[in-house]
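Complex record, two chains
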Amino acid sequence: MFLVFIVYPILWVISGSLRGNGSLHPTAFVGLDHYRQVFQDPVFWRVLLNMFLWGLITIPVQMVIGGTIAYLIERHTTRSKTFFRVMFFLPVITNVSVISIVWSQMYAPYYGIIQHYVKFVGLQLTTSPLGDPSLVIYALILVNIWQWTGFSMIMYVAGLNNIPSELWDAAKIDGAYGWRLAMGVIVPLLSPVTRSLLLLGVIGTLQTFPIVHLMTDGGPDHASEIFGTYIFKQGFVIGDLGYASALSTLVLLIALVLTIIQIVAFGAQLNPNQKRLA
Amino acid sequence: MKMYKIAVALSGLACLLVPVANGNENREITVWSWFITSTMQKSIKAFQEKNPGLKVTYTYYNYSPEYITALKAAAASNSLPDIIGLQPGSLTQQYREQLVPLSPYASKEWGNDWTSKVFPIALKQLTMGNPTNDSNFYILPQECQVLAIWYNKEIFQKLGLTVPQTYQDLVSVAKKLSDNGYIPMYQGAADGWQNENVFLMIANQLSPGLTDQAQAGKVPWNSPALVSAMQCWMNLFKDHVFQEGALGARAYPTGAQLFAQGRVGMMALGSWWMQESKFPPPLSRYIQNMSGFDFFYLPALTQGGKSSPPVGGVDIGYGLTKNGARNPEAWKFLASLVRGDALQQALNDLNDLPSFSGFEPAGEITPNIKQMYDRFIADLPRAENQRFAIPAIADALDNALAGVASGTVSPEEALKRIQDVTDKALK
């Protein structure tokens, strides 16, 4: 199973990246030509920058907001905990097409949802961040954060519920409140969850596709291009499978390097059994 | 004894006939496309009524990413259905090796002069991107379209506006619409296809057919007329003919909904817009019988220039896959789709214009719709080409248009980028 569904497709893609441009099947062997073209392609560097921004912003922001919401629900809400958990988790399970239509309408000037409310205070939006090359990637990152913060929240809810009640009591007796409680007790105890979210966040960043495809398709003029949309265009729209395979192989390598770094850095601590033994 | 022999013979004959009858009942034709399901079901029903025993199984996909990924995966695994919906040019070329040439089928069905019935622009587009010396038709066109600027007649009348004849008229009409709280000309500029359509209207009014020559490498993309076209395109944004924030807007569903609701003055669409009047209720009063709408061609955007000629071509065509060629019934449905009962159902739904002359919609077609339909049909024979043979060039044009519209790249620089891609693609 592993050979058929994992190893074979990877080898097929790597082999395709070394062959010529065919729309359905790779053709003659061209060596590293596609990789040379990729590194000379300004869009590739734009994609790398966008992916870096995506990961750098979404992962920590989702963690901080998700963790804060989880803490407020679990420690400061006595009733309707389930209601709040469900409400904040709803965007995670909402269809991405719906999310993209709603947010596109929210961003729209003149006829948009935000415009509908700001007009009551005399404001008129005159542009959409989705059409501004300098803002578009941040506008999409905001949508992504909105959608996925609920996932961080639910992970932290589980983490908070795993903290023994004796520890909370001990912290109170020791006078740990507010910032000191957060940094001295909660954050360290939730660090396994944080590391898992970091790992999943990096993977999720590299897998991002539908929200960008539906809202901007990587535009305007590649300003919001990410690996998913660029590989899709090269492989399926333009029909250059060799170039798309080279891009895919590079994504695979990036994912591999980042995963190895995380496993080397956090591997032992990601394993709860090992931690207990220590 | 004689009676006994006859009875045995009849029984034997009956036994032979039963499996044949069952076989006919199970003959299935598989079709994939992005064509609207409700209309396709009417086409299938009409075909099946005329061809009892045949069953057409239609699979609808959203065009992107579902349809193009499904096609790619099925083509790579040799599991394409019998018939696939395609557009001429780049999309057809990607699957040419999986399709069979259709000229022999068409000649056998309709006679050797069948091409004389196809509108010239459709015929020209069918072979776009074919290798040199390959004049085969790998798809046959079902429907054609003509691009135009649709406008809301009621809003125009209410504000005392008339159809713009010059660029200055267009700018002042847009201003009056904006001043009165309407979106002037809705442009879903996040959609490459809508930008391409408007740019082709502009380029063809400055020099008909020039974009075709440029994509074929016969003239450079930075030739003066195309630089001028790109500047005109930029001006539509700078002079607020298009709504603010157009680059972040989509034509469908948002633009179409706003236009149908009467919140938009003008929108660049095509003859397919008439189909809205056939959608299930509730329909806005503008959409009912299309009584709130009419269309014009883009007025001259340069001093002393001419208005845009009709631009258009094949909206959708169908190819017979090599799998489909092994199914003797598949051609029957394809023929019906492009020039038969199935086509007639699509036309009755006002889905678009026919590709073969001699057809027109039947059923409940009001005089208002009929006159618009007739105007489109009259313009179709002189339509300029809207399709690209090489997808990389179309993609480069899409990005160039977005770059110019956003002000991040100059018209000259944007056209140079398209030229670089064209040079590489034609190498």
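Note: Chain A has a mean pLDDT of 89.
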